[in-house]
Amino acid sequence: MILILDFGSQTTQLIARRIREQKVYCEIHPYSISVERIKELRPAGIVMSGGPCSVYDNDAPHSDPAVLALGIPILGICYGAQLMILQCGGRVERAEKREFGKAELQVLRTDGLFAGLETGEGVHHHQVWMSHGDRVEVVPDGFEATAVSAHSPFAALRHRDKPFVAVQFHPEVAHTLIGNDVLRNFIFGFCGCRPDWTMQSFIETTVAALREKVGTARVICALSGGVDSSVTAAMVHRAIGDQLTCIYVNNGLMRSGESEAILRFFKETSKLNVIDVDATDFFLDELHGVVDPELKRKKIGLGFIKIFEEEAGKIGNVSYLAQGTLYPDVIESVSFRGAAPIKSHHNVGGLPEIMKLDLIEPLRELFKDEVRLLGLELGLPEEAIYRQPFPGPGLGIRIMGEITRERLDILRQADVIVLDEMKKQGWYRQVWQSFAVLLPIQTVGVMGDGRTYEHVVAIRCVDSRDAMTADWSRLPYDLLGTMSTRIINEVRGVNRVVYDISSKPPSTIEWE
Ligand code: XMP
Description:
The protein is of the alpha/beta class. It has three domains: 2-190, Rossmann fold (3-Layer(aba) Sandwich), CATH 3.40.50.880; 199-385, HUPs (Rossmann fold, 3-Layer(aba) Sandwich); 404-499, GMP Synthetase, Chain A, domain 3 (2-Layer Sandwich). Helices cover 33% and strands 26% of the residues. It has 15 helices and 18 strands. The longest helix is centred in the middle third of the chain and has 23 residues, at 293-315. It is globular. It starts with a strand and ends in a 13-residue tail after the last strand. The mean pLDDT is 92. Xanthosine-5'-monophosphate (XMP) binds at residues 297, 343, 345-347, 389, 391-393, 433, 467, 504, 508-510. Residues 197-387 form the GMPS ATP-PPase domain. One of its GO terms (cellular component) is cytosol.
């Protein structure tokens, strides 16, 4: 295992991704982790991440210098490199010229971190990505430069006797063309890791751990039809079989046919215990007359908890709640960066406290793409695995204004057409999300010889990596044209279709 100490860099998660892509397991922990805890984790190597501070700032994050005495190989990246050098007795100073963006690295040694990178005779040059204002000025005893750049006399360093290496550039970003080689040299060359972390090995260790933790107790799981909860259910079921009961609450705000497909798979193909509650009437009653987006979200969230609790109560004797928390959420909750809440995203958060259940989170160490691989390995259908994200409040936040059965019906029909054309024309998997939104206005049109005064549907389609930022997808005009024609022709009550060309920020992906 490789331990990554997080000093607050935007790219700490990327370091983890790159290492796991090499089939080596790694975990991110805050820089303040105790030396005792590190010893328990028994990492084969430690990476000290970059960070936004200067090592001399008053509140700069400093890891315990005792980390350097553990005898474990350490790679310092950017801020991490500067801190390592400072803690070993060197000097870091504000550079006259900051380096941001692409830079040319001149490699002085073709071993260690740069082994196997020879491009020919003599000195080697490589493109790397820099982002720093401070730089190492004086190296402590035992250290020497292994690479330089125009503005960094110590763009890479190594210790002659100890397994310490450091780079001023960011090997984890794609613009550092030799980034993967550098990380590979560290984890395999210095740390002696083996590329044996696969989804199959993850399943085996998780099954064993779940069996030991749960014993003969009962576990419940909220199944939503989404990737995370589906994979969670499949994973827990693999470990404890019928001790798991899933509860699926149909809030009446699902897309056409979507949950039926998931339920069919879980109930019939994988033989899971699934309690399937149709609470459509309850939710639509609760939402009657509600137009405020936050109130909608609140009512849907609370309604879910109420129904879920009722059903769970009927099972009795339940000790655990299985939940599809992913690694980015875990990192977010331990990170020291805050973010202003824009929308109250509703998931099953809050349930464990209310129901006094212990949590089981079998995916909490995985990134989304790893969850997908795990799902495939567990035998889930590709359709479920590559399903686009769907918000907890469902179509409720894609109907502007009041939610009624009639308006739900219109939106469902339009949405099916959008998804159908996206799939047919090979765009569905290329975008982050694609869906229809029903607007609260009517506009004038002409059909045949008559005037119409009907609804407007907006198509929203975005590209994104993580939903934090997004841009509208540049779909071909013909595809947009086909969707528009089909929606207007096939969905009764719609006479106009518009395409949303806003990015996030300043807009958001969903309209409410
Ligand atoms: P926004 O609209 O905030 O959406 O840009 C970002 C991503 O989150 C999804 N989303 C939700 N997911 N519960 C969820 O589980 C919610 O309440 C919720 N609201 C938005 C949205 O679909 C997009 O992928």
